Amino acid sequence: MNEHVTLVDHPLVQHKLSIMRDKETSTGQFRQLLREISQFLAYEITRELPLENQAIETPMGPMDAPMLRGKKLALISILRAGNGLLDGVLELVPSARVGFVGLYRDEQTLEPVEYYFKVPDVLNERLVIAVDPMLATGNSSVAAIDRLKEAGATNIRFMCLLAAPEGIARMRQAHPDVHIVTASVDEKLNEQGYIVPGLGDAGDRMFGTK
Ligand code: URA
C-alpha cells in the first residue's frame, strides 16, 4: 500500500477474516482463524530474513543450502490480545525467542502504563516482531515500541490483523522506521476507540470474556 504498510490481501486471509468479523463466530473458531491468519502474516513479515549457505549432504550429494543467518528473531506479544498471534507464528519459526509487554490505560491521564516487560537479550541483533491484533489509536503499540527501542531494538516490524487509518498515522509519526503488516485497513475509529467495521474487542472474542 505504501512503504510503511503491507496489506496481506490473499483470498484465504480475507475469507478467514470475514468469518472472524461475524459476531456469531464462536470463541474457538475465532481463535483458530486468528492462528491461521497469523501464519500468512508471518510469511510476509519474514520475507527478508537474511540467509547464508551452509554445506549439507542430500542423498544425492553435496550442496550449499540456504539457511537462516544470525540471531533468532524476537517475537513480542503486546498483552493480552497479542498472545492470539503467537502460537501460529511459533509453529513457522519454532526457534524464535518470545517476549511480553503489558500495558494498561490510566483512566485519569489516558496514558499507557507498563505493568510487565520481559524480552529476549541482545534485541539490537534480532529482527523484532511486535504483535497485537488491533492497531486502533496506536497509543499502546507506540508505547510498546518505545520500550522495545529503549531495550535496544533497532529492527522492528509490527504485525496486526486490523489497522485503523488513525493508528497507522500515529505509528508512522512516532516510529516511521517500523513497517506494519496487516490483513486489513478498516474505515475508522469510533468515539470509544474501537475499529469500525472491525470485529469488536479482540481479547474478549479470543478468550471468551466480556
Ligand atoms: N482493541 C480491540 O480489541 N478492538 C478494537 O476495535 C480496538 C482496540
Automatic annotation (TrEMBL):
<comment type="function">
    <text>Catalyzes the conversion of uracil and 5-phospho-alpha-D-ribose 1-diphosphate (PRPP) to UMP and diphosphate.</text>
</comment>
<dbReference type="GO" id="GO:0006223">
    <property type="term" value="P:uracil salvage"/>
</dbReference>
<dbReference type="GO" id="GO:0005737">
    <property type="term" value="C:cytoplasm"/>
</dbReference>
<dbReference type="GO" id="GO:0044206">
    <property type="term" value="P:UMP salvage"/>
</dbReference>
<dbReference type="InterPro" id="IPR029057">
    <property type="entry name" value="PRTase-like"/>
</dbReference>
<dbReference type="Pfam" id="PF14681">
    <property type="entry name" value="UPRTase"/>
</dbReference>
<feature type="binding site">
    <location>
        <position position="195"/>
    </location>
    <ligand>
        <name>uracil</name>
    </ligand>
</feature>
<dbReference type="InterPro" id="IPR034332">
    <property type="entry name" value="Upp_B"/>
</dbReference>
<dbReference type="InterPro" id="IPR050054">
    <property type="entry name" value="UPRTase/APRTase"/>
</dbReference>
<protein>
    <recommendedName>
        <fullName>Uracil phosphoribosyltransferase</fullName>
        <ecNumber>2.4.2.9</ecNumber>
    </recommendedName>
</protein>
<comment type="pathway">
    <text>Pyrimidine metabolism; UMP biosynthesis via salvage pathway; UMP from uracil: step 1/1.</text>
</comment>
<feature type="binding site">
    <location>
        <position position="105"/>
    </location>
    <ligand>
        <name>5-phospho-alpha-D-ribose 1-diphosphate</name>
    </ligand>
</feature>
<dbReference type="GO" id="GO:0005525">
    <property type="term" value="F:GTP binding"/>
</dbReference>
<keyword id="KW-0328">Glycosyltransferase</keyword>
<keyword id="KW-0021">Allosteric enzyme</keyword>
<keyword id="KW-0342">GTP-binding</keyword>
<feature type="binding site">
    <location>
        <begin position="200"/>
        <end position="202"/>
    </location>
    <ligand>
        <name>uracil</name>
    </ligand>
</feature>
<dbReference type="InterPro" id="IPR000836">
    <property type="entry name" value="PRTase_dom"/>
</dbReference>
<comment type="similarity">
    <text>Belongs to the UPRTase family.</text>
</comment>
<dbReference type="InterPro" id="IPR005765">
    <property type="entry name" value="UPRT"/>
</dbReference>
<keyword id="KW-0547">Nucleotide-binding</keyword>
<dbReference type="GO" id="GO:0000287">
    <property type="term" value="F:magnesium ion binding"/>
</dbReference>
<keyword id="KW-0460">Magnesium</keyword>
<dbReference type="GO" id="GO:0004845">
    <property type="term" value="F:uracil phosphoribosyltransferase activity"/>
</dbReference>
<feature type="binding site">
    <location>
        <begin position="132"/>
        <end position="140"/>
    </location>
    <ligand>
        <name>5-phospho-alpha-D-ribose 1-diphosphate</name>
    </ligand>
</feature>
<keyword id="KW-0808">Transferase</keyword>
<feature type="domain" description="Phosphoribosyltransferase">
    <location>
        <begin position="8"/>
        <end position="209"/>
    </location>
</feature>
<feature type="binding site">
    <location>
        <position position="201"/>
    </location>
    <ligand>
        <name>5-phospho-alpha-D-ribose 1-diphosphate</name>
    </ligand>
</feature>
<feature type="binding site">
    <location>
        <position position="80"/>
    </location>
    <ligand>
        <name>5-phospho-alpha-D-ribose 1-diphosphate</name>
    </ligand>
</feature>
